[in-house]
Amino acid sequence: MRAVVLSTPGSSVKEQIGANYASRFADRGIAALAFDPAHQGQSGGEPRDLEDPYRRGEDISYAIDKLGTIGGIDPERIGVLGICAGGGYAVHTARTDHRIKAVGTVVPVNLGTSFRSFQEGGPSAGLDRLATERREESRTGELTRVNWLPDTLEDAAAAGLTDIDTTQAVTFYRTERGRNEHSTNRRLSRSDSLLVGYDAFHLVDQLMTQPLQVILAGRRGNTGSYETGMQLWKLAPNPVDLMMIDGAGHYEMYDEPKYVDAAIEKLVHFYTDNL
Fold first, then answer.
1. Which of 47, 160, 170, 222 is 20 to 30 A distant from 10 in Cα terms?
2. Rounded Cα gap, residues 7 and 104, in angstroms
3. Alpha carbons 254 and 173: distance in angstroms, whole number
4. Rounded Cα distance, 155 and 170, in Å
């Protein structure tokens, strides 16, 4: 049997976006594994709320380790699907873990590029501030946590964040639409220095030889996923298909049935052909 490992967005837990895609794969005869990354959700790992991009990649490889022990799963027919930041993590892992035989991405984001872009004064100045913060954490023993997103739509409006992408993100993660009790919406600030120095696409042009499917939202917003997806498409040695889903926004690719179903139909064909 074919199997796909789900690599999910930053801050999400397995019951959210991963489950939306995994259940649809299972309905179509492809085994799918969605999991909480280390330090988050119901997985172990201290300190909590750490977003370590390198550990996120290792988590994918550990998931493949486990799949290889399950009867009925063909270890030569395992692929990965990465969504949003998980797309970057999936690509980064596939470069060097060639047990992954096919790579799919939906609205992929390179968190390294994103975090470097919003450091006040530039990435180096941002790292200087983060170094000072961590020094203070070591002195006091108190870890600093920051929000991934405003906790409410009112908080977003108060901060002047009224663009459609932020509004849809808050609506998904922080309201009944997609809220989950295990998703804290908090990130240890020490994660940020790891992310600033991270490049999900480093050496992709040389190492990621697996077939690649890229799926993008037709409405370009401020998440950078359109630009990231096009960059990946150009870098990859073995791109198979590039799909644009008309009318969809980034966060609508998480759970809007007509958009998710369209992506799944394309992905099922891709994995059937390449696993």
1. 160
2. 10
3. 10
4. 10
pLDDT digits (tens, 9 = 90+) for 178-226: 999 999 999 999 999 999 999 999 999 999 999 999 999 999 999 999 9
Q: How confident is the model at residue 43 (pLDDT cuts 50, 70, 90)?
A: very high
232 Cβ neighbours under 8 A, 6+ residues apart = 87, 91, 105, 108, 201, 204, 212, 214
Q: How many CB atoms lie within 10 A of CB 99?
A: 15
CA distances from 114 to 88, 130, 236 (A): 11, 16, 20
pLDDT digits over 98-146, tens only? 999 999 999 999 999 999 999 999 999 999 999 999 999 999 999 999 9
Sorted by sequence, the CB contacts under 8 Å of residue 223 that are 6+ apart come out as: 84, 107, 109, 165, 250
Q: The tokens of 8 are what?
A: 């999910």
Dist. CA 14–CA 181, nearest whole Å: 12
Beta strand ranges found along 132-221 (DSSP E): 145-147, 186-188, 212-217
Q: How far apart, in Å, are the Cα atoms of 59 and each of 30, 105, 108, 125, 159?
A: 20, 17, 18, 30, 34
The token pair at 121 is 């004064």
What angle, rounded to 10 degrees, do the helices at 53-67 and 85-96 form? 60
Question: How is residue 68 written in tokens?
Answer: 């290889």
Q: What pLDDT sits at residue 62?
A: 97
